[in-house]
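fyi for ur records
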Amino acid sequence: MKTYSIRLIRGQDLKEELINFTRENNIKAGCILTCVGCVTRATLRMANASLIKDFENNYEIVSLVGTLCKDGVHLHISLSDKDGKVIGGHMKENCLVGTTAEIIIGELENVNFTREFDEQTGYDELNISKQ
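which gave:
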């Protein structure tokens, strides 16, 4: 596995930067290994729903997981507020970094991820093939 380390700064859009990084580095099959940092704004799609919610506050990133490929990214995030209350969901654009976001990305060797529309789910779903 090849690894990358990146650091985002205040105001950068977490999802957009991960999409750009994936494309710029031609990552064919990537995953988020770890992420620590914070956001001041988050836009999340709630579980098994079309409901999208916006959150504005200071949140610690307690988890960021997902898959990355040239066709797109699929990311889920969990965030905690000052009282330790946790929110989470499918990360959309408009998740803005607060102080920092330190991210380690893994690129799987000999594997290729693509995303294709699945009529059963209504989403672009992950396809995995060997290189």
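The radius of gyration is 15 Å. thats all i got for now
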